[in-house]
Design a protein that fits this description.
The complex is a heterodimer of chains A (201) and B (331). Chain A has nine helices and one strand. In chain A, helix 3 packs antiparallel against helix 5. The N and C termini of chain A lie far apart (53 Å). The relative contact order of chain A is 0.12. Chain B is mainly α. Chain B has three domains: 71 residues, no CATH class; 163 residues, no CATH class; 57 residues, no CATH class. Helices cover 53% and strands 3% of the residues of chain B. A two-stranded antiparallel ribbon of chain B has the order 2-3. In chain B, strand 2 and strand 3 form a beta hairpin. The chains are: A mainly alpha (201), B mainly alpha (331). Strand 1 of chain A pairs antiparallel with strand 1 of chain B, so a sheet runs across the interface.
């Protein structure tokens, strides 16, 4: 088996250059609902950029430097923007029944991305190393312990939380987002629900 | 465009599009919004609870916290896995207790690890504490309990004068001296370091013990003053006017309603319900009735209104009625 040839065939069948970087789009793709996903992706880019800057200086930086605090503020509002856009993306694609015509994998990977993002958000709040993180840590530990997760994840262990937040979870999110984008571009946007239903309604 | 997509979109008119331009414009807009929000509102950074502050400003509360842990009254006592072997106390639903599945992975003996171990360090520097600690450890468990209970009762009548805690006379044995040692440790700001220092490496990356030390009365009082208790939608909001993890509001909502709001198994009940909701959402494409909801709700008519208008105009113009071009099937 020629693995390279197989990869070429896979891409030809699933993700051509026009799929990956489209220069045309079906005319029904004409709503603000289509912007929530790319907005969430943009916020994720900002999160990675600001998070990378913060990781260069360490977790205490934002407590002791006004520049650090400002970068932390950018990171904080990027999180808010990302979740706002993810939730709008999720709701709008639910209303569009966007899982139709073989797009169930795209829906599921999106949901899994959301779940990992919620966990990443939790670790971010735990890393603030202020009152909020103290309170969230002691509260979250009861939830984690009750579910049996406490044996593997201790929200009060800042060292574990830090490594999860800046390495494991971003890589997981990026992998899921990459797969989500691949599925989106491979399948292209789902058609509108049948016009017949529209007339009957 | 791949063949499958060409086939799928064969009846659909296309329009010019520039993915990268759209992406860059959205990135610029989101960056601008985030920048403005960061400049205008900054970000929250409410000061952490520190032993030095509690011991200095609320010495009686600090002493009560220490004595309660020593007396075995803390929430941590008999908590169950992963901290203590009391499996009967683990949260359970229908006899299922996931906390017990993996046993005690992070063993904690609250009186020993949170009070006596720090006092052993203090004893190296303070001979009075060393003598008191020796006397306490030589006494019977009943005697130890009697001393600590008497001391705790006396703390209810204690006063603070010129920064000094005045406790009524009583038979506290060595406990009063031990608690003085704990207070000095806190006032010196050394409690966290003493609790969190690891046995084998001189680094402190895990503040579990110091967080657990203050989790009862001290944290509860601070949280109450900031409307952050569980019954006040707890973790889903930040201190002050800032939005917190509002996306966890569904979880916080579950904590507000029975049986989760009052059950000792509330965390597990909430966790299982959240897990169920997530699974329903994950498998929504395959769940009959639920996967038809978007059709019945009809919001799609607003999202694709331009498309439907175009279809109607073309139908009127040609007298042709477009056929259905999509199903609600999942595949």
């Amino acid at each position: 088996m020629n693995i390279t040839k197989e990869a070429q065939d896979f891409l030809k069948n699933n993700l051509t250059l026009e799929d990956a970087l489209p220069t045309q789009m079906p005319v029904y793709v004409n709503s603000v609902a289509y912007l929530f996903g790319v907005s969430a992706l943009s916020a994720l880019v900002l999160l990675i950029l600001t998070g990378t800057v913060m990781s260069l200086f360490g977790p205490d930086w934002y407590h002791t430097s006004s520049v650090g605090h400002f970068v932390n503020s950018l990171h904080f509002w990027s999180v808010q923007a990302m979740f706002a856009m993810i939730v709008l993306h999720l709701i709008s694609h639910f209303f569009m029944a966007a899982w139709r015509d073989g797009r169930w994998k795209t829906w599921m990977v999106g949901l899994l991305t959301f779940a990992v993002s919620v966990f990443a958000g939790l670790t971010g709040f735990l890393l603030q190393t202020n009152w909020d993180s103290q309170w969230i840590a002691v509260q979250a530990k009861d939830f984690m312990n009750s579910m049996g997760i406490g044996a593997f994840f201790n929200p009060m262990d800042t060292g574990q939380v830090l490594t999860l937040h800046i390495v494991v979870l971003p890589l997981t999110i990026m992998a899921f987002v990459g797969l989500h984008l691949f599925l989106i571009r491979s399948k292209n946007p789902v058609k509108p629900l049948p016009i017949k239903q529209d007339k009957e309604a | 465009m791949n063949k499958q997509t060409q086939e799928y979109l064969r009846d659909i008119p296309m329009k010019p599009y520039d993915l990268l331009k759209e992406g860059l414009i959205v990135l610029l807009v989101i960056s601008g919004v985030v920048l403005v929000l960061a400049i205008l509102f900054n970000s929250p950074d409410y000061p952490a609870v520190r032993s030095v502050d509690v011991a200095s400003r609320q010495p009686i509360l600090y002493l009560k916290t220490s004595a309660n842990i020593l007396a075995g009254n803390s929430d941590l006592q008999g908590y169950g896995p992963p901290y203590t072997p009391d499996t009967a106390n683990a949260q359970q639903v229908f006899g299922i207790a996931p906390a017990n599945w993996f046993g005690v992975t992070d063993p904690i003996n609250p009186p020993q690890d949170l009070v006596l171990a720090p006092l052993n360090r203090v004893a190296k520097l303070n001979s009075d504490v060393a003598t008191a600690l020796q006397a306490y450890q030589a006494a019977s468990p009943d005697q130890q309990q009697a001393w600590v209970d008497a001391y705790l009762a006396a703390l209810d009548k204690a006063t603070v004068s010129s920064g000094q805690v005045q406790i009524p006379e009583g038979d506290y044995g060595p406990v009063a001296t031990m608690m003085d040692g704990m207070l000095q440790l806190g006032q010196a700001g050394l409690l966290e370091g003493t609790l969190n220092s690891a046995d084998n490496v001189p680094y402190m990356l895990n503040p579990t013990l110091s967080l657990l030390f203050f989790q009862d009365d001290v944290d509860q009082q601070v949280a109450n003053s900031l409307d952050m208790l569980g019954g006040q939608w707890g973790m889903s909001h930040e201190t002050g006017p800032y939005p917190g993890a509002w996306w966890t509001a569904p979880a916080s909502f579950l904590y507000q309603i029975p049986p989760m709001s009052s059950s000792p198994n509330g965390d597990l009940q909430t966790g299982l319900l959240l897990g169920l909701v997530f699974l329903v959402m994950l498998f929504l494409p395959f769940i009959p009735v639920l996967n038809k909801l978007p059709r019945w709700l009809g919001v799609y008519k607003i999202i694709w209104r331009d498309w439907y208008q175009k279809q109607r105009s073309e139908s009127k113009a040609s007298g042709y009625r477009p056929a259905e071009h999509s199903s609600a099937s999942t595949d």
